[in-house]
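Progress narrative, work stream C.
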Amino acid sequence: MPDDAFLGEPKSSCEVEDCWEKTKEQTSWCFWRKRRLLVALLAFFGFFNVYALRVNLSVAVVAMTEPVETELENGTIVYIPEFDWSSQTKGLVLSSFFYGYLVTQLPGGWLAAKIGGNRVFAIGIGATSLLTLFTPPLAHISTGLLIAVRVVEGLFEGVTYPCIHAVWARWAPGGERARLATFAFSGSYAGTVVSMPLCSLLAHYTGWPGIFYVFGIVGLVWTTIWWLVVKESPEKDPHISAAELKYIQDSRGTQFVEGSKIRHPWRAMLTSGPVWAIVMAHFSENWGFYTLLTFLPTFMQDVFKFETSQTGWLSAVPYLAMAIVLQFAGHLADWLLKKGILSRTNIRKIFNCGAFLSQTIFMVAAAYSTSVVGCLVFLTIAVGLGGFAWSGFSVNHLDIAPPHASVLMGLSNTVATLPGIISPPLAGSIVKNKTAEQWRIVFFISSAIYLLGAIVYGWFCSAEKQPWVVETDSDASFDTDGASVTTTRAYDNKAMDHSEM
């Protein structure tokens, strides 16, 4: 069978189920023989590394700028920071990653289609890990070099989210795409939960450079394993069982056929209300998320006088809630749709707008909280509820335009990266005296953006396939075990057909 051959028509559900039952009987006691599950597990740890490499500076910068005991030449003991950065400089350092990250969203998806999503994913994380090892010496040379290396790290990490879709296009059976992708993406929040307290411990016991050395090495180890184990498609994996390969091919059908010619109606997409509802929702969720991701350790130190070793632990709590709620919300949305309790559009609106309105309230409550426990509880609820929002806007691309979903995700994720560039310097310009009142303004801005996102999404959201969606027939023929199979559709929407899952 040629490496890029996809079967023409998916088999009947009974045939696929029979094949899958045989696969389960053969591999139920050792999950690594189910190669798609191994791909999902390694992808989980890949996104774990993606966020660990992204947030390490958020904790390290606290240790880098806090006063340390220093002995002068005359023997006098003084307390001065190793890096005496202003709030504006600190904000620029923290936001520099996103300047690179913004640029490679769409190119990453395009490159993955050319050379394979598995390779681009590995290169993106591996290069970021390698550059992370050079962060401490470059920081000691100049702040400008530190900013430059963070920009380049962002360039490499920017390809990770778009290119993983190329992996699932090959590896995920039609009825398992949502659960496999969700499990992989949840590694992002697990990486945040683990890395923030671990960064605090490393800063305390090894000094802040240890943060970058440890996570850089871990990332390179993961890259080596992924490169050796994960193949571009199940057809290229020599260790996959015949039963699992047949199951994936039969359920995958003709979706994402290589060589299919899909025309993207750019004008219609860019003037579509539902598209901009998704873009605004993605922007709003990321504004609050990136603000806390970048500044929560600093906020805990400024307002509640927590030491570096404590800020990482407490800052990780909201993201633990996010990781848990994300899984629950996804299953709940699928269940409501399968049971016919709510329409797909109403599920998206209720989950997304309900989360945003609640986040607006709890961010304001956190701003006025006078105790660390109350503040942490409110922030944990605010961040955790974002899991419901992700079950709204993040899958809405597939609802409205299945063949153009990857392009729309690239569009929305590009705009949603802007908060990572705008928010840190804005917060740095506001919080000049490190007072609770100044931090309150930062929280108010996040609350207002959540509210605006809820209004726009609630008004323009739709989960119905849009009239401008182009149904493209493919002329490409694929030789499957010597037989010529001509595909008839460039896509279908079975990935979102929850009734079959």
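Work stream C, second folded protein:
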Amino acid sequence: MLLHSRMNDGIDAPLWMFWKRRRYIVVFMAFLGFFNVYSLRVNLSVAIVAMTENRTVHYDNGTVGYEQYFDWSSSLQGYVLSSFFYGYILTPFLGGFISNRFGGNYVFGVGIGTTAVLTLLTPLAAKAGVAVLLAVRIVEGIFEGVTFPCIHAVWSRWAPPGERSRMASIAFAGNYAGTVVAMPLSGILANAWGWESVFYVFGVIGCVWFCAWMFFVKTSPEVDKWISQREKEFILESLGRTEGEQDKVLHPWKGILTSVAVWALVVSHFSENWGFYTLLTQLPTFLKDAMHFELEKTGFVSAVPYLVMGILLFVSGYLADWCQLKGYLTTTQVRRYFNCGAFLAQTVFMIVGAFILEPGPTITCITIAVGLGAFAWSGFAVNHLDLSPKSAGVLMGISNTFATIPGIVSPIITGYITSNKSDEEWKTVFYIAAGIYLVGCVIYWFGASGELQPWSIEAQERREQEKQQSKPIESLAYSNKVSVEDEM
């Protein structure tokens, strides 16, 4: 029903005809951008299995032996997989800051485009030595670190408040679409044309997207030559902006850093990413070591949870906006119920899946846990825009900086825990993730807010406007008083 409804934006077209609305072209291109963000990030998780597995080699003298392309221990593999995040953690805050200055669309595009070029160089880096590979992955992380804060800067100019959840959720679904495609395709490419082909294919796709993004997506509706006048006016009016208005952003740092709602959001983002990055980097290895799947099959099975999550992201985004627009739930209630409900479900299914540890039931539990995490993205992931739209990029930069720590720590810890590749070791990995989900659930429940914060730039501007409006009234009252006294 939602897909066929018409919006109150003056455009006579159902929602599924997204090309009729310029802001949904931006959403579609952002979806493809995040597709590249995660396909470029996760391809190594599958490729590393092919790069380090024992392969049968037939020698010229008729004997058969086993060789590895790279003889890396599980702990060294953990460092290789986490190296991306050493760079990634450095730039989310910077990305939020510079996106307000130069335009989120430009920084978003350059971040992904540069990562794509570096991905093309990954095979050369790996053959040059593990130190060179680590350096390339770190630089990739530096450029990808700006992407999430920058897209919030884009939404702050393009997303009407009543459409924030769906626009952000649709774009973020690209993360999981990229994972769904990259994991099985990486396995197929590695088997058919060698592990190097994994990086060449996804690197080229990323470069093509970069060219399209820079051509089609503009900083704001005011400078987009293809947008209709009606849609432009609708977006500006809904955001309380006027054409030609320039944002002079002076972020209220004291208010941000002392806000309970901000820190609750940070903890929630950290908790979701711990479980997500643990599975993102380790699921193919887990399926091979504990579930005894073949390489090509691990790619397909690893993709299933993210396929479910990608589908449910569309559902959660629409459902969140619908609950708000119909007045069934306040913004704070939507963020709290969706986020904490997802975390509780993830806690339960991670524990059950680890306890059973059988291929069918465990993969089912992992799929449900990851899939229901889609509802958390209608909580913490768009909460930055509720608290202060003009500071949303910086807020995402802060939360994403802390949320990157799991990407660094989790693969390393998992590498050490699973050094013997035993079932009990893998159970410990899942129990840790479940515990962190539960902590995030409790803290977000009591600290979350979906309301514009008193310290926000927008709230300060409203108070200033009210003060300015009250001055003529006070002046008129004083004049009347003087006139009465003169007459007396």
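The first helix runs from residue 22 to 52. No further action is required on this item.
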